[in-house]
Specification:
229 residues; mainly beta; Porin; 8-stranded antiparallel β-barrel; 15 strands
Length: 229
């Protein structure tokens, strides 16, 4: 009898102990903690460094040095003239850019005060230029630059001295520049500046060809740069 009572009590205790677990199993599961979705990822296209430029201006020429007839001419003059240029460049850093330009200048008449020289001069230039943009002041950026390249210098329409014919001579050229660029928009920039350029020398054809040295000038240049996105 006692054994049966003990067994009954133990069974009852086991049943009571199992009731909370069974009730807990019947409860709905706790909702998971809220995790915000990851922020959207936008692919930002890399901005191109490339730009194109077109420029024009006026050239104030220094007095050239002309050698003819085994001697030196006196009172040489080379007319001032216009020029045009175009090029392609790249902004390498916020403060450094470089470009390659091709230019043409014409309408420069060569003469002397003794009227013994009558010829025309023209040139096609190809330059590699580097610029330092010093700082940007509200969209206005002063800069300095240097250029190295070559110039195809042509003497033509040679009436004096007689016995001369047209010829093109390719010579080393260099330039020193300073100016200001103004941001007109995110892509368009106005460029205005000064340039000193030395085109080397020119030479005609003939038994005693004339030679023209000191083909340097002071250029006032205005242009536009278009920056690609």
């Amino acid at each position: 009898m006692r054994v049966s009572l003990y067994v009954s009590c133990a069974a009852a205790a086991l049943c009571l102990g199992a009731l909370p677990a069974t009730a807990a199993d019947l409860l709905p599961p706790e909702p998971p903690l809220y995790e915000p979705p990851p922020p959207p990822v936008f692919e930002v296209a890399e901005r191109s460094c490339m730009y194109v430029r077109v420029d024009g201006g006026y050239s104030f020429n220094e007095r050239p040095e002309v050698a003819k007839n085994h001697g030196i001419a006196f009172g040489e003059q080379k007319d001032d003239s216009w020029f045009v240029e175009g090029g392609l460049g790249c902004r390498i850093t916020p403060y450094f850019r470089a470009d390659v330009t091709v230019g043409y200048r014409d309408g420069q008449h060569l003469s002397t005060s003794f009227n013994d020289l009558d010829a025309d001069f023209s040139a096609v230039t190809g330059m590699v230029n580097a610029y330092w943009d010093i700082a940007n002041f509200g969209g206005i950026t002063p800069y300095v630059g240097v250029g190295l390249g070559a110039s195809a210098n042509r003497l033509s329409d040679i009436n004096l001295p007689v016995g001369q014919s047209s010829n093109t001579r390719i010579d080393f050229a260099y330039a020193l520049m300073a100016g200001v660029s103004v941001d007109l928009s995110e892509r368009l920039t106005l460029d205005a500046g000064y340039r000193y350029i030395d085109l080397g020398s020119a030479r005609a054809k003939g038994a005693d060809p004339i030679k023209v040295k000191n083909l340097d000038s002071h250029d006032i240049r205005v242009g536009l740069r278009y920056n690609f996105e």
